[in-house]
Each structure stands twice: as C-alpha cells, then as structure tokens.
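Tokens in:
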C-alpha cells in the first residue's frame, strides 16, 4: 500500500504561516523554514511584550506625574505618600492624564493633598 501524506493539509498549514509573514524582509516572507522560524520568534516577542507594555506604561505615568508635581515644590514620592495618607484613591494613569490634559484639576488634587 502506498504512503499517504495528506499534501492538502500540509500545503494549507504552510500557506497560513506564509500569509502571516507577508510583510517581512527578504526570505523571511517566502522561504518556508525561514518564515516559520521568523513567525514563531515574532509570537514569542508578542507574548513577552504584552507583559512588558504594562510596565512601560506605568513608568511613563510616573515620569509624567513627577514632572508635573515638581512645579508645586514636591517630588513624586512625597506626593504619592501624601495622596495615600489623605485617603484619595486615584490611580497613576488618571493622575498622569490629568497632569497632561487638565492642569486645573491636577492642581486641585495637589492643593487638597497639601
């Protein structure tokens, strides 16, 4: 009996990966083994960076809050300490947005904390 290889499914599997690597450079888009490796590596980066994105945004918010609060003679650490002691529960994302887009509201929070 002859060996059955199911070429239709194999071809479909390859086409799926090659379609996903369509915009890449050189052989990464059209040579099967290179494209497969490139795609898998990209997926690992995507998985890793979905987690790193959260860290990077938190860091950005802290930098923005620190820059805004220095105008009022405080630093980030002192501000966050006084914020928690005064019982104001507002997260860093909102604080950074207020500092950037609505300085009056940010100043009101700073005055309340002082």
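Residues out:
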């Amino acid at each position: 009996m002859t060996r059955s290889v199911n070429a239709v499914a194999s071809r479909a599997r390859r086409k799926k990966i090659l379609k996903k690597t369509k915009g890449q450079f050189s052989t990464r888009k059209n040579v099967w083994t290179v494209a497969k490796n490139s795609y898998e590596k990209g997926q690992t980066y995507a998985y890793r960076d979905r987690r790193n994105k959260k860290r990077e945004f938190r860091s950005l918010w802290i930098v923005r809050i620190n820059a805004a609060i220095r105008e009022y003679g405080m630093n980030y650490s002192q501000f966050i300490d006084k914020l928690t002691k005064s019982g104001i529960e507002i997260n860093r994302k909102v604080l950074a947005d207020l500092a950037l887009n609505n300085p009056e509201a940010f100043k009101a929070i700073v005055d309340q904390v002082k």
